[in-house]
Amino acid sequence: MGRERVRYPAFAICFTLLLLVPLVVVVATAVNPGAYIKFPPDGFTLDWFTTAVETPRFQSSLLLSLRIAVIASVVGLALTIPTAVAITRGRRRLRPWVSTATVLPLITPDMLLALGLLIMLVQIGMASSLIGLVLGHVLIGMPLAVQVLVAALSGVDENVEQAAQTLGASRATAFVRVTLPAILPAIGSAAVFLFIFSFDNVSISLFLSAPGQTTLPITMFQYLEYNSDPTVSAMSTILIVLSLVVAVVLSRLGGLSHLAGSPTRRSS
Amino acid sequence: MTFTHQSGTAPASTEASVPYLRLRAVTKQYPTGGGVAGVDLTVAKGDMLVLLGPSGCGKTTLLRTLAGLLQPDSGAIELDGQDLVSVPTFRRNISMVFQTWALFPTMTVRDNVAFGLKMRHVGKQDRNERVARALELVGLTEFADRLPRQLSGGQQQRVAVARAIVVEPRLILMDEPLSSLDHRIRVQLRAQLKDLQRGLGLTGVYVTHDHTEALALGDRIAVMDAGRIVELGRPVDVFARPTRRYTAEFLGLANVVDVSADGGGYRTAAGARIPDDVIAGRSDVVAVALRPDCVRLSQTDDGGTPGVVRVVEYQPGGVLHDVELTGGARLQALTPVGLSYSIDTPVFVTPEWSKAVPLAD
Amino acid sequence: MTRARSPEDDTTLGRRGSWLLGGPMLVFVVAMFGYPAYLVLRTSVASGDGLESGGFSLTHYVTFFSDSLYLDALLNTFVIAVVSTAITAVLGLLYAYEITRRPGLRTVLLLLLVLPLLVNGVVRIYGLQLGMISLDRLLLDAGLRDTPLGLQYSFAGIIIALVMFQFPFMALAIYAGLSRLDVSLVEAAQTLGAPRRAVLLRVVLPLAVPGLVAGSVLTFAAAAGTFIIPAMMGGGRVNTIPQMIYTSVSQTSQWATASAFAVVLVAILAVSILYSLRRGLRSTAGTR
């Protein structure tokens, strides 16, 4: 027993580092002075970052992706917060229906969701609209956001809301003044998840993006089909840094643990 | 104060002949079972009524119905002459202390206490003064800027009390507010709570399953069983002279011995005759209660029933003996500390049946 | 029961409130999931290949099952899904167990696990490709190999990428179960005379099973449904159903064919998942 306690979790450490190696390689190739991919790099330069941001294709895609992700987060929150309240505080007979509905997109392959949405949008003549893209992204990010919010809401003692009511607050006031502040971190986490699921999405964007108006992952994918150079590495590095920021924000909000529990956690 | 307003005819107190809080045939049933059925109750202004009973007896349901957190299926609730049933919780001008205290986790102690006043649109200056006074009353002035999670259990409980009394509610409801505390703090806070309620003249309904708490806090006690009130009266009466077997058994303070009618009088299964003046002409008696200090023990054969001491328990008031009588029945006897017997001692037991209390089913 | 929570009616939202809050999500899911799914099904049995064709025929399914190109793609998809799920499950189990045994490193290990999940998938695949190319070059330069491994643009590359993508989910799902492992439980088993292997098998493994099942279902579905991984890692050499769906739609506008592919994919997914779940349930029921 004692011997095992001291032993280092070599396997675990090595394996996670291995998972991170590709990211390190990307960053390394982004600072190579030459206009080609080289690892390890021959020198150090930050020029490629300027180039990447100034490349019109990347620039417009990045802005589009950011815009869509922000809208998807807002729309997603507007949809998921009431849903989570209904699941935790609603009538018992309605709850399983709502929580099952929120899980469906999670267990369906993205490709099917994307194809179905495209057929529908073509039929109603909105194939290239941003609305379709945003709603598609909300569909993808919604399950995890709901889970985060449901977990937070079930952590709030219902007596607390009732205490507010006995003290003279209407149900709505009690929710806004007492419950909402208590789940604010979870709302933050949910927003981050909605953002990142939208920002990173490939399948939905691939089908629903209008030609010439593609999101960043799609632009990069299409770019990489024909070339790989330090510009795309630099763009990738920017995204990696962004992910790090997101990770820090999430860990401060306590949202990382939700990623851990998500696949097994059913309606609690 | 008497407990005659059970019938609703006699004047309740010197202050008001009309009860302050009145429940009539309040019924709230759950599809899964439980709840309360046909509860009639009155509480006089300034009184504390304790609802006492085991978990599942419906006492919390009744309290939540008073708070408006549950709607009764039928029946009427009146407070100070006003019908309450149609009034939503937040307009009832009552307050409630929860078993979990239910403090607002994101607010400081001060904001917790101020919440009810804010909801009542009390001006800032007035509000601050009242919050300060309430915090002083519960001795938490220096903790005003802490968050609930930074306080001990007893302190949190006091915040909950301060939050409830600061709004000067027409009625204060308490749902086992002390049950999650250590015994020592519980006893201490119990006294403070009684003090506060008396001092502020608050009318209250207090739910508990702990009979010592009921004794300490109640002006009147309502014992509940299976959704009904089975006994109602002043603490001293309920404890000293319970009228139902259920009450006597639940309180656990006395021997409960089954009796049956036998010709002219009542006898125990062992054949002991219960004096007629104990029964007092009642016809519904099924058992009698006999306090352990009314059971005499002796080592010499003085005509008592032979038995053997099985368990000995030292208590503040003396030594409690659990005696197994020949035939297997058990009887508890309390003796002064100097006169106790050790385990397995053969003794003769003499119950003073003249001090027994008749019990109906 | 009695004390736990006051029953619904008054303390929870009323009927109207519940519908008001829960309704929008139901509408959203019906409109954005239910109806589109119906459309895919409907289009797959249309008589023509266009969107407006209507009618009813099973031509597209018949075509699918009689064309070796499509059947190969189906086989590829299936093999990729099975192999990557198996590898991910084993690695995930080991990893989750490591985390459980070393609570001190728990936070670090979990953070390392979650970090890659937040990075864009295209970036991660790109990184993997670069890594594989660099590895080849390093091996050649060091004289350890004469020919490149050629991991990028290969079947193995797809599997590696999938394992890399799904491994964190699997490990986390299993860990969610294992974290409930009470150390005193293991100690109790040991005091009762259970050898180490028995403890692992009887006490630890059953806790891991629900997470293993959930993680496997997720991995299997993700592996069978992924477009971007075979598209980028396969280099056009490995054909899978999701790729065929995409090309059918984007290049030849064969809506009905694409829909038939999608239906077949989902049917196979559903059947395999249900089948393995049933078998899994039976085998765990046997050990109890």
Task: Describe the protein's architecture and organization.
The complex is a heterotrimer of chains A (268), B (361) and C (288). Chain A has helices at 2-6, 10-30, 47-54, 56-89, 95-107, 110-123, 130-155, 158-166, 171-182, 184-200, 203-208, 216-226, 230-253, 256-261. With 268 residues, chain A is mainly α. Chain A has one domain (57-261): MetI-like fold, CATH 1.10.3720.10. The radius of gyration of chain A is 22 Å and the shape is globular. The two termini of chain A are 36 Å apart. The model of chain A is unreliable at 1-6 and 261-268 (pLDDT under 50). Chain B has 361 residues and is an alpha+beta fold. Chain B folds into two domains: 4-240, Rossmann fold; 245-360, Nucleic acid-binding proteins (OB fold (Dihydrolipoamide Acetyltransferase, E2P)), CATH 2.40.50.140. In chain B, strands 6-7-8-3-9-10 form a six-stranded mixed β-sheet, with helices on both faces. A five-stranded antiparallel β-sheet of chain B has the order 13-12-11-14-20. In chain B, strands 15-19-16-17-18 form a five-stranded antiparallel β-sheet, with no helix packed on it. In chain B, helix 2 crosses helix 3 (124-137). Chain C is mostly helical and 288 residues long. Chain C has one domain: MetI-like fold. Classes of the chains: A mainly alpha (268), B alpha+beta (361), C mainly alpha (288). At the A-C interface, helix 2, helix 4, helix 5, helix 6 and helix 7 of A face helix 2, helix 4, helix 5, helix 6 and helix 7 of C.
- State the CATH topology of the largest domain in chain B: Rossmann fold
Structural class of chain B: alpha+beta
For the biggest sheet of chain C, the summary is: none
- Strand proportion of chain B, as a percent range, falls in 25-35%
Mean pLDDT of chain C: 83
Contiguous uncertain segments of 5+ residues of chain B: 1-16
Quaternary structure state of the chains depicted: heterotrimer
> How many domains would you count in the coordinates of chain B?
2
Determine Rg of chain C (CA atoms, Å).
Answer: 24 Å
Per DSSP, what share of the residues of chain C sits in E-state strands of 2 or more residues? Answer: under 5%
Largest interface: A-C, 92 and 95 residues
Major sheet of chain B: order of its strands? 6-7-8-3-9-10
